[in-house]
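Posted in: Protein Modeling Q&A

I'm a second-year student putting together a small comparison for a lab meeting, and my supervisor asked me to include a predicted structure for 8-amino-3,8-dideoxy-alpha-D-manno-octulosonate transaminase. I've never done this before, so apologies if this is the wrong subforum. The sequence is pasted below exactly as I got it from our records. If anyone can share the structure token output, I'd also love a short note on what stands out.
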Amino acid sequence: MEKLAIHGGKPARSKPLPPNYPGAVLMGAEEADAAAQVIHAQSPFRYYGPEPVFTVKALEDQISRDMNVPYVLGVTSCTAGLIIALKALGIGYGDKVIVPANTFIATAGAVICSNAVPVFVDVDDTLNMDPDDLERVMDDEVKAIIAVPILGNPCDMQRIMSFAEKHNIYVIEDVAQSCGIKHHGRYAGTIGHVGVLSFQMNKILTAGEGGAIITHSAQIFERAARYHDQGLFRDKQRYNLESSDEENAFAGQNYRMSEITGAVALAQWGKLNEILTNMKTHYTNIQQALSLEIPTLQFRRVIDTEGDIGSNLGMILPTKQMAELFTDALNAENINTAILYNGKPVYMNPQIFHQRTAEKHNFPFDFKFKHAVEYTEEMCPRAADLIARTVYLPISPILTEADTSEIIAGIIKVYAAVSSA
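Accepted answer (user: helix_wrangler)
Welcome! Here is the predicted structure, written out as tokens:
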């Protein structure tokens, strides 16, 4: 058996894989020129300036065309987008929102910052929300579900939407990590009542920060636009929507996307198909080779192989300890892998687990719910088990065939050693 690099052997690769920034690694003259145009026009604000370029409007229109959704709103971040979406749906103090146990803290944090309280549903072997567990956390105080397709793998939106329709609650799709994925041919984010995209640094596309809200509902869109812009609705004529400020305005905040962000995001959007095609090709080649060579290796289940974008290959190891050893050994081989979120469900973050906020009396957790919200370490046992045992290999869009060959050989080498240890 070949000696592992972690024990002093020769690494499978001579240098690390490309950094896990899919959009950023393809940044170049297009993004620089687009941003420069805004700066030279001295008009970085999206609604007016000396010579407005209207890049945010162009980005919104492009997303609308490509995703076949009528209403798109550029915002400052995906987190902001989640808060805006919740406000647009009228969700707030005294409401509960179902959140998957496997997600970034921002999903739950946005619920809390919208003055509602998250309740957590377990995952299945897709590592996404388990539709069979939804009924366990459902009560008459739940007003919405946030579905999160983790790392490029679609959620079972058909069953999630059926559940929501049965209970007359909203569905928000947090597509931060998975821009471009589909379920049954429809883009994630366009299936629920409202979807949110991210352009943060390590997302599929990036402008450093930024996000977008997408919806088929004119009413939801207007409320979102108003909340993100101090209660104003400046695009009534653009969308042919009649709306009275006297009757419909309400207090909002400032989550407006800048023109520089819009310019960079628009240039990145033009590279989406290239990024997705490259990632999916490398992902498929690596997984198929590993399936042949290591038939005992368990992969994260995918419910829609056509819709999965192949951004991350999830490998499920038999134990937490083996997963940690597998990760450390692969990283020593210059094959960058990781266990997501320190191997813990999102509710184990102390500020959530202990229900602490910056507000008096830990508002909004101080609401006297009919069905008390209590968090325990064991409340989502499959998430606690599977998150800690799943090792992710990020798939860069700039991998070469030589890279994929070395990745395959390195994983085979490490798995043989780790599984026999």
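A couple of things worth pointing out for your meeting: The radius of gyration is 22 Å. The domain at 29-271 is CATH 3.40.640.10 (Aspartate Aminotransferase; domain 2).
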